[in-house]
Each structure stands twice: as structure tokens, then as C-alpha cells.
Automatic annotation (TrEMBL):
Keyword match Hydrolase: no
The protein's name: Methyltransferase domain-containing protein
Alphabetical list of PANTHER family matching this protein: TRANS-ACONITATE 2-METHYLTRANSFERASE, TRANS-ACONITATE 2-METHYLTRANSFERASE-RELATED
Superkingdom of origin: Bacteria
Residues of the Methyltransferase domain: 38-146
Alphabetical list of InterPro entries matching this protein: Methyltranfer_dom, SAM-dependent_MTases_sf
Keyword vocabulary terms for this entry: Methyltransferase, Transferase
Gene Ontology biological process: methylation
One GO MF term attached to the UniProt entry: methyltransferase activity
Pfam families the UniProt entry points to: Methyltransf_31
Amino acid sequence: MDSDVAKKRAEIPGSASSILDARTLHTSHKRLSELVTEGMSVLDVGCGTGTITKGIAEIVGSRGRVVGIDQNPAFVETANESALDLPMLSFMEGDVYDLPFENEFDMVTSARVLQWLSDPVRALRTLIAAAKPGGKIIILDYNHEKIKWEPEPPESTKQFYRAFLKWRADAGMDNEMADHLEEMYGRVGLSQIHTHIQDEVVTRSDPDFMKKINIWADVMTSRGKQMVRDGFYGESELTLAEKQYREWVQFEARSQCMYLRAVEGSKQ
Ligand SMILES: C[S@@+](CC[C@H](N)C(=O)[O-])C[C@H]1O[C@@H](n2cnc3c(N)ncnc32)[C@H](O)[C@@H]1O
């Protein structure tokens, strides 16, 4: 499948950056927060607005080096503004398929990015090239087929979700990325491969329940429009799905679990 289609569908509309802005290293990339230590050099590819990257820089300190890369210039600009007080941290615009680094970093990470690519193995090879020999690669990603809601959401939500996954698969994206990482790591020659469960669970008693579970309302508003434009969903169905999802969130929803895995491996 044409990777330009994936590239276009992966673009995050400006309105959706609030989901990225709310993430931190400790809440949203836990395994990485356990691995990063003072003085390390770390590359974060597909860093979004850089909130996780900034957390990495705070740990590595002034003897370390952290670089964040994203293809979205608006995200890089926001990230740069937040990095002014951290001289070891820099952000740049760039494409995961074309990274300007070789054998430079102790650790290379890419969180929630490979799921949006049509050729994740090619991306993984460029991430590995950027790591030093003996360096670590750590990818964080979802299996969207394994999401769980309690209780079941309305039929219109499930229909939207199925269309969303179909729209992604049509662009060559892997909806089960999390469960294919280990096999990919083996194929490209990484060693010491370990998988960590990092599921994102939110329940009604959590203070940020509404913000987190409304991720699908945000997806309906942002990606839904793209799906309508691409002929994968009807405009009236989208309006109904969004209305019924918001009602379900307000009155019925108890929990949501998004299946997320961090997979680490070492470069020989
Ligand atoms: C879902 S966001 C994840 C952001 C952040 N890593 C996090 O975990 O919150 C995916 C990010 O990958 C970026 N991205 C998608 N395709 C990319 C590519 N080919 N090269 C670089 N960045 C890319 C997007 O612009 C977006 O910021």
C-alpha cells in the first residue's frame, strides 16, 4: 500500500494535541522511565509535543543528551518552546524513515508511532541504526483489536471503531502492532528482547476519567472527518456515533482498557 496514504492519515489535527500534551514520561512511558539514567543519550522519534521527551531530559541531566524528532512542524515548535530551560534537550522536524543519526544514542525510543506507519520494519531499522552498538531500542505500541470497555458501548460506537480500524488497515497500518513487535525485533537481529505490559486503564473513580475516556469522542471529531472524506464512514452515522458515545460516557461507562506493550531489545 502506498505509504503516502499512511502519511496523510497519520497526521494529527491540531485539536488532537491535548491528548499528547497530557502525557508524561512517568504516566505514559513507564518502562522507559525505569531504564533512563543520568548522563545517557536518548533519541525519541515521533515525540509529538515533547512532554515525554522533556521528562527524559530531566533524568539524564546536564551530562546527558536528548533529541526529540517529529514530522509535524507545529508539534516541534511547541516542544522547542518548552525546552528553553533544558540545554541538553533539542527538538527537530524529521521523518522516522530518514533519520540523520548513526551509532549515536544509548537508547532509542518511539512511542505510539509505529502503529501509524505502513512499513514499521523499515522504521525499526532506522531506529536501530541511530543506536550505539549495545544500545537499547524501546518501542511502545497498542493492539487496537484488544480494547475493552465496561459495559459494552452503543452499537454506533462499535461500528465507528470497526470502520476506524478498517480505515487504518486500508492505509497499510497494523492494528495489532503491540503483538507483532517481538517477532519484528527477532527479524532485524535485536537481542535480549523483553515485553512489558503497559495497558492504559481508566475507571470512573479516576480524577481524569472524563478526559481519558473521551479519547474516542476526540477521535470521532478529528479522524472521523478524515474517514468521511475518504469514504469510510457516513456523515450522519458519525454525528449519531459521537452523540451516543458522549451519552454513554456521561451515564454508563465504568472503565476502558487500551492494550499497550513496551518491547525492548539490544543492538548487537
Ligand atoms: C500518537 S502520537 C505519539 C506522540 C508521543 N510519542 C506520545 O507517546 O504521546 C504519534 C506521533 O508520531 C508522529 N509521526 C507519525 N509518523 C511519523 C514519521 N513518519 N516520522 C516522524 N514522526 C511521525 C506524529 O506526528 C505524532 O506526533
